Amino acid sequence: MMKFLYILCSLASCYAALNNKKFPADFMFGAATSSYQIEGAWNEDGKGENIWDYLLHTNRTYSLNGDNGDITCNSYHNYKEDVALLKNLNVTHYRFSIAWARLLPNGHINEINEAGVEYYKNLISELRANNIEPFVTIYHWDLPQALQDEGGWPSSNIIDVYADYARLCFRLFGLDVKYWMTFNEPKQTCWQGYGVGTNAPGIKSPGIGEYWCAHNVLKAHAKAWHIYDEEFRPRQKGQVGIVIDSNWWEPATNSSEDQEASETKLQFTFGLYANPIFNGDYPEVMKSHIKRRSLAQGFQKSRLPEFTPKEIEYIKGTADFLGVNMYSASLVAAKQNQDVDGMGFDHDDEVKVWYSESWKKGASPWLVVTPWGMQKLLRWIKNQYNNPRMIVTENGYSDYDGTLNDDDRISYIQGYLSGVRDAMVEDGVNVFGYTVWSLLDNLEWVYGFTNKFGLYHVDFNSPNRTRTAKKSVGFYQNVIRTKCLVDECIEI
């Protein structure tokens, strides 16, 4: 029996009610991972080096304890066990990513690694045999190092190279894959990878490299969508979307300045990628802020590249569905003392961001428990982009020890799922599924193995990386079985 009561609080109100409306019978419940975080076998069977391999091998201080993805969960060798765990959960779908360098060791189409092809074909076949829908992310942060050496995402050459890679994925796996995601969290790829440099490839080019990266990612996404639409959709009949992440940005006060700060932050985080795809072109507030600041800093034009009218039309409408990654909320206010010389995403928005000390924190420094933010973000997306067809592609809770009695994770998932259902029932948001992060404890990027997100505990000291179900497995199984978050639900 589910006897959980989660107190959902915002600055303005507090309420103690989990949604008691059943999820629709066809609502999809799944789990997610990514290739670098779980596969291991970093240099086996012809796989090439990616930017995370290179960064964490050449700079052991970049991640906590020098942890890397050389072995991690060893899913390259244990994929059948992973699928058995998914079957045990009774999920409808599994979201995973293809390692670009496992398929194309040098990143280019001229050298295809047949062992990599076989691995993903076997994984997809195993999922299909167990009635689990593959949700495939084409790019989840792990660019082949050879392509980074050629300039990486800020270089326009990457657009056609990515398009070749995407076409290959569609050709090889498309008959068995109906849901494709071109990019996972491009904001993190560009801002953390080429702006502040906290993620691979670790390049610091705030306000310039990060925006060129975003510009090229959007063009690459659109090109992949058009390739699928024109060359593969008639036969394969699948869908292509993108995954965008954001916090909910809660105004610190009811003042018009803080309300405006919230909207600006949403546009700089979510709108940067969603607006060109759903509405056409970058958000106006981004264009005006960055141009004004660029000119004041002595540039001749905006540091944010411009799309041509033809490019705007080419990108607009290139998503059959929208993946949303959401974990936390933040407080925002207008910055009172602007750094006029500051460049980059976190200066150009001119918004102050912080967490309330009263909010419960997870192990990850960016994760706070604010389930009320889920409904607010989904409602904002609905209103901003004409209620696109959405799926929550990541949401989950981290702790430090990977405890099997993970009541905090249960409460987190339950509260956020309640927010999803509230958005559907109260706001009419078009959400067709939810995907918990993560199936397994895994390598949490620069935080190494110190942040545990898994429904299943992984013993990273055991030779075969033994998996053990946590308490949250039983909880999630019950939600999937009953389509209900409380003891008794109402069908609508």
From TrEMBL:
Database matches in SUPFAM superfamilies: (Trans)glycosidases
Residue ranges of coiled coil:
none
> What Gene Ontology terms describe what this protein does at the molecular function level?
beta-glucosidase activity
Which InterPro entries does its entry note?
GH, GH_1_N_CS, Glyco_hydro_1
Q: Which domain of life is it from?
A: Eukaryota
Binding partners and assembly:
Homodimer.
Q: What is this protein called?
A: Glycosyl hydrolase
The scientific name of the source species is Phaedon cochleariae (Mustard beetle)
| Source species taxonomy | Eukaryota, Metazoa, Ecdysozoa, Arthropoda, Hexapoda
